[in-house]
């Protein structure tokens, strides 16, 4: 199978190593761009959209770690692979902690390099496939270590009969986790019934949960089986349990203690076998201390607890989730959309998403609906995010950025012809070359 022609930027002040790496990667089917310094590499980002950066750690001028930090500010979702000598491994470990994909110790085997390159290139687009033994949590897409550890614990808890309590902000996937626990449990062949406690009117709640008999109240024209009986043998998920009024908390507690329900208007009770998973975005301990939630019910529900992290604590999952939602929504809307521009992905990774995964889905849906190209541009993401204008740069930073962008534009138009570019800029060749050197721009890079 041919390797997709993806672009890799190699940054190293050693010309021989740049050439060697370039040959190996080109022979594997990749496109290669090289830069002899971190400054030059940052300038190349204005005209090149690499899917991976390989940089040496020790370089004259800007070292590899400094280069990575500046690159990471511009392109946080771009994977970086660092090459290091044995003596600089501690620095490479520091880089790993700051977000570098991996490091290779020189000298390294060509196969090892190509293996790490292939893994890194999948960073923003591959959605990890769950193995057969992990299908129970296939709907929860993550590579976040904290969430993966939580899922391991959830699988252990699923094998028990203990009631489970899930906390977390709105939109973090509490119902998805509840469904996953049900699938991993011995009850997986029985029903999973979900009820939003805040969405049912108080006067109908008892009837919905416990059922009613015909004639129990005005409008009860037939027998109605409650949700507890509907979930018999399976799992009942009580979402937003923190919104349950106190009188109903008392009745729910009695059902959990006696494991029996009595329908409204009935004279006999019915045995039930139900596993309870409850969830809320509220702080139940505070509500319990203020008298808004029963302490005995709190401890009855909260046998095993899981706290889902917000999306802001697992930003490495945003590219995965965004691509997953994009694939779903493009198919649903009959559109050929394959991905996001790097700038669009950066906006998503940095975005403030108080609505968490649910908000991210809504943003992706809006961009898919409005997109007229196979790649989602940054402008659509920015519109969906309703982002504010970025903070003003300092005068020197703004002037430097303008100069670099202006010079890049001139060189593009002139196809790397310095004489023509200088003439358009109304500058002599000597001054123009000084400007190019200041911004580490190589005219030959722009030649057709």
Automatic annotation (TrEMBL):
MF terms in GO: ATP binding
4-aspartylphosphate modified-residue sites: 56
Domain Sigma-54 factor interaction intervals: 140-369
Keywords, ordered alphabetically: ATP-binding, Nucleotide-binding, Phosphoprotein, Transcription, Transcription regulation, Two-component regulatory system
Keyword Lipid biosynthesis attached: no
UniProt-listed PROSITE patterns: RESPONSE_REGULATORY, SIGMA54_INTERACT_1, SIGMA54_INTERACT_2, SIGMA54_INTERACT_4
Classification via Gene3D superfamilies: 1.10.8.60, 3.40.50.2300, Homeodomain-like, P-loop containing nucleotide triphosphate hydrolases
Domain of life: Bacteria
Gene Ontology BP term (one): phosphorelay signal transduction system
Record Pfam families: AAA_lid_14 (PF25601), Response_reg (PF00072), Sigma54_activat (PF00158)
Domain Response regulatory, residue spans: 7-121
Entry coiled-coil feature ranges: none
InterPro entries: AAA+_ATPase, AAA_lid_NorR, CheY-like_superfamily, Homeodomain-like_sf, P-loop_NTPase, Sig_transdc_resp-reg_receiver, Sigma_54_int, Sigma_54_int_dom_ATP-bd_1
Record-linked PANTHER family: TRANSCRIPTIONAL REGULATORY PROTEIN, TRANSCRIPTIONAL REGULATORY PROTEIN GLRR
UniProt protein name: Two-component system response regulator GlrR
Species annotation: Thioflexithrix psekupsensis
């Amino acid at each position: 199978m041919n390797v997709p022609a993806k672009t890799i930027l190699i940054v190293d002040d050693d010309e021989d190593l740049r050439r060697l790496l370039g040959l190996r990667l080109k022979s594997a089917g990749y496109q290669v761009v090289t830069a002899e310094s971190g400054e030059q590499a940052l300038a190349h980002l204005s005209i090149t959209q690499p899917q991976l950066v390989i940089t040496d750690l020790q370089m004259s001028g800007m070292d590899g770690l400094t280069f990575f930090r500046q690159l990471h500010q511009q392109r946080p979702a771009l994977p970086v692979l660092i090459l290091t000598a044995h003596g600089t491994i501690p620095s490479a470990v520091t880089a790993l902690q700051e977000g570098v994909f991996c490091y290779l110790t020189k000298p390294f085997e060509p196969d090892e390099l190509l293996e790490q390159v292939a893994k890194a290139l999948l960073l923003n687009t591959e959605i990890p496939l769950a193995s057969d033994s992990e299908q129970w949590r296939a709907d929860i897409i993550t590579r976040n270590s904290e969430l993966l550890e939580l899922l391991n614990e959830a699988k252990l808890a699923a094998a028990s009969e203990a009631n489970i309590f899930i906390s977390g902000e709105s939109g973090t996937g509490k119902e998805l986790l509840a469904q996953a626990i049900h699938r991993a449990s011995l009850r997986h062949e029985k029903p999973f019934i979900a009820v939003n406690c805040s969405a049912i009117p108080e006067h109908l709640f008892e009837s919905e949960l416990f059922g009613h008999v015909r004639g129990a109240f005005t409008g009860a024209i037939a027998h109605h089986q409650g949700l507890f009986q509907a979930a018999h043998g399976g799992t009942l998920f009580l979402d937003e349990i923190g919104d349950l009024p106190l009188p109903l908390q008392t009745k729910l507690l009695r059902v959990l203690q006696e494991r029996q329900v009595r329908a409204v208007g009935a004279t006999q009770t019915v045995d039930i076998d139900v596993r309870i998973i409850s969830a809320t975005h509220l702080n139940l301990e505070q509500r319990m201390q203020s008298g808004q939630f029963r302490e005995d019910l709190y401890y009855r529900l909260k046998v095993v607890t899981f706290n889902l992290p917000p999306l802001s604590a697992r930003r490495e999952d945003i590219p995965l989730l965004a691509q997953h939602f994009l694939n779903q929504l493009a198919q649903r809307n009959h559109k050929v959309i394959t991905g996001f521009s790097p700038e669009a992905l950066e906006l998503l990774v940095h975005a403030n998403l108080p609505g968490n995964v649910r908000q991210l889905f809504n943003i992706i849906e809006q961009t898919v609906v409005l997109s007229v190209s196979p790649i989602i541009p940054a402008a659509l993401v920015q519109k969906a995010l309703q982002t504010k204008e970025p903070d003003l740069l300092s005068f020197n930073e703004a002037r430097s950025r303008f100069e670099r962008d202006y010079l890049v534009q001139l060189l593009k138009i002139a196809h790397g012809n310095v004489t023509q570019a200088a003439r358009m800029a109304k500058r002599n060749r000597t001054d123009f070359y000084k400007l190019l050197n200041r911004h580490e721009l190589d005219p030959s890079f722009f030649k057709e």
